[in-house]
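Late entry, coenzyme A complex.
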Amino acid sequence: MNHAAVIGTGSCLPKRIVSNRDLEQIVDTSDEWITSRTGIKTRRIAGAGEENFHLAAEAARQALEMADVPAQALDLILVATITPHMIMPSCACFVQAEIGAEKAFAFDINAACSGFLYGLDLADKYISTNPDMKILLIGSETLSARVDWQDRNTCILFGDGAGAVVVSGSTNRGIRASNLYSDGRLWNLLYMNSADSMNPELQQEQEGCYMQMSGPDVFKFAVRSMEDSIRRLLHRENLSIDDLALVIPHQANVRILNKLSERLSIPEDKMFINVDRYGNTSAASIPIALDEVNRKNGLHKDDMILLCSFGGGFTWGALLMQW
Ligand code: COA
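Prediction complete; structure with ligand written out below:
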């Protein structure tokens, strides 16, 4: 049986670094409050020439170079994003044009912060029926365009960036198992409205098309749901935390990750954290982290890596892959 195995990683962060002190000039907050509640110190914010698809394409170029796969050899481009440049065409189609991947078909995935995990699972399913496929999967966001910069509850949390992987079929490494969930009944705890409808009969009362969030509810559900999905996945695969080389979680908040480590007894050196530098980059956070670890030679052959995520929808889950 063939599985999707990562053969190249890449990432791209906007140039501009915005610190907590910079945010003190914009909203009523403090470096001390943000650091103690979230662990975030800085985030990257996109500027001119750094649209979502620009970041995504640059991350893709790096991943393709590492994989030694020309863009023309790609069969499929998937972009996990909730902040596409346009509603139509997809961000994936913009990336296809940017990198010149004429042979590929391309589409976006919207599963909020869990989009990259959902995308890996999907890539694995394609590979299982067509092992020769070369798939480019990107998580890419410009959330700075969709947060209300006057709302201190949300604007301090998020950042922009992109991460990418190239996957192809392998019989002895790659994705081993996944465990994904959604619960649409809880949509109103974390959501982003779309623009006003042009159809008067479909117009709704809106509070602007910005990120809306019930922070404490999201916090509790994130910890419980990720813990549950990890426990179930490890149990099903007959593995324990000791069998894992590294956990790369969605980077939302250091306190969420500390709680998760505490409940599952994950040693500090097995939990990868970079949210302090980049904030929450939604679907991009896991592939950015994966590329960072990979480029520091932090992953070794046969390492068992656990990815886990939580996001709007709600969507959540865990995925195991052998490096
Ligand atoms: N600076 C200073 N004070 C702030 C603030 C900020 N940036 N944001 C909120 N506050 C205030 C609130 O207004 C509130 O004041 P009040 O008590 O006078 O009403 C107080 O801080 C406490 O707010 P609360 O929301 O209870 O804080 P918290 O400890 O729950 O932390 C979050 C808030 C958002 C950091 C936390 O709930 C969280 O991380 N939630 C998960 C968010 C997340 O990860 N979302 C994405 C998931 S993919």
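The chain has ten helices and 13 strands. Will revisit in the morning.
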